[in-house]
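Database export, one record per block. Field names are fixed; values are copied verbatim from the stored entry.
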Amino acid sequence: MKLTMAQMTAVRYYEGDVTGEDPFWGDPKAYVTLNSLFYNGIGTERRRAAEGKKLNPAVIADPLRLYTLCRDLLSAFLAVDLSQERITSRVERYADYMEMKQAGGTLSFTSTSSGGFLKAYGDRIGIALMKFHIPAGTPCLPFAEVLQEGYLKTEEQEILLPPGLALAFRETALTGRDLEITDARGAKPLVRCEAYVQGYLPGPQGMPFDPYNLAGPEAGLRVYLALNEQREPAEADRRIYTEWKRGFRAAVLADFPDGKKAVS
């Protein structure tokens, strides 16, 4: 497998391998904000902010830059040949898990680990334990293989899944070892689930995406500032931002996994 420079930049950015003071390119936790764009409403933004994870307005300030980066990241998935089945784990927010279950698949870029349930990801409030069964041929990014000696977080053994994978969910009993994993408040997991990748979800629908229309990102900036300060965003800002998000993710995920549409 060989990624282009743009694909490698996008993968490293998502991983958090960044330097410098630029508010966009220098944010090692940009994935917190980026992933929230792929959920409906602002529920996941509320949950992340409530956990003390700051939403970064710089991530959405330039929609064309963000769109191009997301398309480069998606195209990287298609450059990797997964030759055998993988089974990975994730400690997920329970509320986000329920949204995934309702949708029938992954909604955002989804970080999983081949090293079991990572306690480091118990920094969430209300958790679900998920095991992903990933068949050969599924677009995914095993970071250790893609980044090789440049992989900074080797202990995480991360395999990143793309948005839009269809999943079959089978909830199972929590084991004694599962109950040793706790959330940010010390609470035990609420559910354990085996999730089997079974193709792809239908592409999302949304208003046509105009990367030069800043009304959505500007409303999003105000939503982020309010949530970061534990305030309620203005209803008009919430509505404009969520409508913009729908159009953005529809544009980003257009034709995935075919990957035939060029970034422009």
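Remark 1: The longest strand covers residues 191-200.
Remark 2: The two ends are 25 Å apart (CA to CA).
End of record.
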